[in-house]
Design brief:
By secondary structure, this protein is α+β, with helices and mostly antiparallel strands. The chain has helices at residues 23-38, 57-63, 67-70, 84-95, 141-202, 221-227, 231-234, 245-261, 306-311, and strands at 42-46, 52-55, 100-108, 114-126, 129-139, 206-210, 216-219, 265-272, 278-289, 295-304. β9 and β10 (295-304) form a beta hairpin.
Length: 312
């Protein structure tokens, strides 16, 4: 029985045939076709004029045209007028015997849709002469979309950074203005404090101030002159050293009760003067509150009423 074998270039020649190829050459041809069919990249073979003589399965998928319909068509059909010069340059370089690395171009399908590809080409040589061109085309649509997405993400990040930087700049400006305003307020308060201290120190009556727990924080010059002591000696409860013991307990009861009620108070007690004599003084204290209603302590004055009591 005689076995016939289709001479499609993919089966090794049987014994007695006229196929000039050796078994090794036939195997190489089969391997090449297998690679062309299985490759994810589109593979083409062109004649020296640029007509497609072979197109792989991936080529058909890439261009949206059945592989057998691609054969016989010129590659120029799949590029727009704008993209064709780049594709032609790749082909002409390969047709002149040069191996061309990956170059980005845009192919156009018959339905008008475009597909970004990277192409490479190498000459097919026989006996040192170029008999065609082998081309490889890689669809980079997914990579382009990823790059576009990354670029959009990068630009969005830059926008957010710019917005954040602008917010920070405005915040720093507000903070600077706040610091300036605060410095002005503090300076104004210092000036006001110095102003009121100068008034208090020039007052003919003794003046004092205490914190929310009743510890004295200020005495004017009239008080210090009356006592013959310096400010540091009177601060806190230092002034109590000059109060006659027999009048101190009643003073503390009156002041303690007023402190609990945050109320105004008046009291009389004996206070030792700079010359060592005990003098009766009348003290008046008024509670102080801040803008939020928090209790700050007392401010008050005291006058020597000894002569008035002696006349009674």
């Amino acid at each position: 029985m005689t076995h016939s074998t289709a001479d499609d270039g993919r089966s090794p020649p049987s014994a007695g045939t006229n196929d000039p190829r050796s078994p090794e050459q036939s195997e190489d041809s089969d391997l090449a076709r297998l690679i062309e069919e299985l490759s994810l990249d589109a593979i083409y073979r062109f004649d020296p004029q640029g007509v497609i003589t072979f197109a792989s399965r991936s080529a058909a998928e890439q261009l949206g045209v059945p592989a057998d319909e691609l054969v016989g068509r010129h590659f120029a059909e799949f590029f727009s007028a704008e993209a064709f010069p780049g594709a032609r340059a790749v082909f002409e370089r390969a047709a002149s015997g040069e191996k061309v690395g990956l170059i980005a171009v845009t192919a156009t399908r018959p339905d008008g849709s475009e597909v970004p590809v990277e192409v490479a080409a190498t000459p097919i040589l026989r006996n040192g002469r170029v008999h065609g061109v082998l081309g490889v085309s890689r669809d980079v649509s997914a990579r382009k979309r990823a790059e576009a997405g990354l670029d959009l993400y990068r630009r969005r990040l830059e926008q957010l950074l710019d917005e954040r930087s602008e917010e920070l700049r405005r915040a720093y400006e507000r903070f600077d203005r706040h610091l300036i305003d605060r410095e002005r307020i503090e300076e104004s308060l210092r000036e006001n404090e110095a102003f009121y201290r100068s008034i208090a120190d020039g007052a003919p009556v003794m003046m004092w101030a205490c914190d929310p727990v009743g510890l004295c924080t200020y005495f004017n010059q009239a008080w210090l002159d009356f006592r013959g002591r310096v400010l540091e000696q009177e601060l806190g409860r230092g002034w109590v050293e000059g109060v006659a013991p027999e009048t101190l307990s009643r003073l503390e009861v009156i002041f303690g009760d007023a402190l609990l009620r945050r109320a105004r108070f008046t009291a009389e007690y004996q206070l030792r003067r700079a010359d060592g004599t005990l003098r009766w003084v009348e003290v008046v204290g008024s509670p102080r509150f801040d803008a939020a209603g928090a209790f700050l302590g007392y401010v008050g004055w005291a006058v020597d009423v000894t002569d008035r009591r002696d006349r009674l």
